Amino acid sequence: MMSRKAGGSRTMSSHTGRMNSSRQSFALNLGTRVTVYWSDDDEWYKGTVVSELLHHNDDRVLIEYDDGYTDWMSVTADQWRAASSKPDIPIQHDTVFFALKREKVAKLNVGSRISIWWPQEKQYYTGTLTKIDDDSNNKPHHVRYDDGEEERMNLLHHQFKRGEAKAEHLHVGSRVSVYKEPQDQHYFCATITKIKPYKARPHRVKFDDKSKGKEWLNLNIHPFLDIDDKSMHGSTTTTDTGTARPVSDPCSKPNARNLKKRKREFLVLQPPNNSAINTSTREQKKAKDKEQEEEAAQTTKKVCKEICAICNSRAKHPRSMSCHHIFCKRCIKNHSKQQQRTDEEASCPLCKIAILGSKGVKYDPSYVSFKAVEALKRTTAEVAHTFSSASAASLQSSMGGLVLPSCIVKACQSKQRDSRQYHGFYWRFQGCKDRILRVGESNKDGIAIEQVDPETGKIIETFSSTRKAFEMTNVSRCVIKRVLERRGKATTGGFFWRFQGETHGPWPDPEPTNLNPVEQLDFETGDFLNSFESIAEAKRAFGMRPNSGCIRDVCVGKGRATAQGYFWRWKGSQALPNHMMGVQKIVQIRKTKTGKVVKEFRTSRDAQAYFGHPCCWSTLCRYCREKGYYNKYYWQYRVLKEPKSAEEEMVGKRLRVQQPGNRDEWLEGKVEDFHSETGKHEILFDNGTMEQHKLEDIRYEWKNDQGQKPVEQLDLKTEKILATFNSISDAAASLSLSNSGGISRVCMGQCRSSSGFFWRYKGSDALPPKPKGKRKVEQLCLATGQVVAAFDSITAAGKAIGITTPGISYCCNGRNSSKSAGGFGWRFVTVDKSTP
């Protein structure tokens, strides 16, 4: 027998000489269990007898195997034996499977469209049943396939399915024979004159019989026969009424009852061919298949130039495994057999990856394993190597190290740049048009752009990238990118920009946004000062940055009270500064979020002064708004909406008080609090004394310095005081600085220096920070431990020896247990502070 796994037909077994006597004397009846030997598979298969002998001189019986396969067995020629020592109880009727199969075959008529399963090719082949022999022949069914082959078979022993009606091949002018059920179940010849697929009845047919006229039908479900002039004249005849029916087989028309039972899901019937059927069609088909295989083998031999990874020669009958390595068919088969003998798991002989299936994939240029691949450089994205396949790339010694073809194929199939990287290269299939970006390159970098005149539309110049355009025109890359992405205005720098190859022109400017007018008010009095059409116009008038949001924050009431020293509001709003609305925010600090209040401050500047200026007052405002945790306290506001009296309004202001007994002595201070019970104000003088006075009983003057503190200017190297100023503003003015923020940050400890000097508030003991990072190092001999050389810094030592500085630093600091760097030991030079 041939191999059942390959799906071939049965042949005579070569084991006929080994028939035992018990088998010869064993009676075969319906339902008898037997075990049959298949020589090609070298295995025994169990089955059941499901059919008796067809002829008295025929010794064959039909066996239904346990795996669902059905085939005939010769009692005398094939090797078989009983499935058990005791014969099974015979049955006198067909099995359920065989009874259903007989019923299915009995419904077939001449002209039926069927699809027959071929196990060897693992697919169905469609054909037409052209003839059914009435006598009890072993192969009563004649089938003509659509590819022109013909065959005789017994459909009772083959797997098949009925074809479905399809009319996609029809076109205007096609000749058909349409079935008319109400009129005596006849077919009438007609021609298709129109096809409208969107209609429920898309096909318009014109009958040859003029009395039938024209009719719209749906031939997808309506039964019909494909005919042409040759087939119609050769195999059909037309009656006086225009009815077309086959001449050789009047039974080719379908049964009306069967059509109704199948809910009019009719088959597309074809007229039978009356030519003589060749009895040796199967042998001819086998010979044709063999010629095609030989032709394919010759083509593979000419085209495929892959090297077998086992024998290191050109692969004969190449097979690609699941790991995408390519081997000869014989080489991988021998390797698989060797692994089976040793009970090893099937794996690739090179990469040791488990493989699925032992046969692999035949040579197919369109399959990923046989496609040519390219390795591209990561820095320039240029092609560095080209290989005939991923397997060939893994065998190249120039690649260095272990290269897995499965990873190469995965990288080629990926659409992301990072996933396309493997073994130091980017990978893609040869001929792929996908552009791979270089390292550090974005999607638009490296693409040429055009500089266009917005009025004439003419191209002024073409640049290779936005960076090149910026270098030549001094127009910001970010602004050019905005125009390239078609956002905002269409021009920048007086030009229109677009990618090379695009043809669109400038677009109208978008409608301006944020045109809400704003009003400028005096913060102390609330008097109206000026009005602006928009926030942008107000920022331009005060020289503010375009992206500044100070004015908007004041308008929406977001944390800020002023911007540029003024109060701002939307035009038409009745908003006023908080102190004029009777609203006051008091800063509170707590140890726990819901605990008791530890201390209260009238302003954030008071809180800043209390903590020694560790940060900016605006930072404290942010923590108060967010109720956050900072400097070991929880911060939040307490809003007072009660209107304040005139005496309470004086709290927080600066003044100077004339001392009694000496009219020339004045002390400066600040009003800290007001006691309503006594009517006295608590004044904290700058010398640290605290006194309570009624303002009407003393002589005083208000000051407008808002509590500026004197600052000192120190030399960075000698730490000597160079000058003292009354305020930070006076210090900035002495150095002609437009912004005093740098001096303020140094005083608060946020910066080391400003304008080449160190700054501090008067009375503070802060000193300039010492420079860091420059320590002398010594180079030591590892063998003797003696000092070889000394350097002023780690950087100087690295440049002199020619090694990287982190290695020396690790060795000096004992980091990562480093003992040497560059073949030498290293250590910092210790300075003896006792030595003068």
Structure description:
With 836 residues, the chain is an alpha+beta fold. Among the domains are: 29-94, SH3 type barrels (Roll), CATH 2.30.30; 167-217; 314-429, no CATH class; 449-497, no CATH class; 518-570, no CATH class; 585-639, no CATH class; 648-702, Roll (SH3 type barrels), CATH 2.30.30; 711-761, no CATH class. 19% of the residues lie in helices and 27% in strands. The chain is built from 19 helices and 47 strands. The chain has a 6-stranded mixed sheet. The longest helix has 23 residues, at 281-303. It is elongated. Residues 1-25, 85-93 and 228-280 have low confidence and may be disordered. It holds the Pfam family zf-C3HC4.
What gap, in angstroms, lies between the N and C termini?
A: 109 Å
Number of distinct beta strands: 47
How would you classify the quaternary structure? single chain
Number of helices: 19
Strand content: 25-35%
Helix content: 10-25%
Low-confidence stretches: 1-25, 85-93, 228-280
Which structural class matches the secondary elements?
alpha+beta
The overall pLDDT, averaged over residues, is: 75
Q: Order of strands in the sheet with the most strands?
A: 14-13-12-11-15-18
* Biggest β-sheet description: 6 strands, mixed
Using the CA coordinates, give the radius of gyration: 50 Å
Shape: elongated
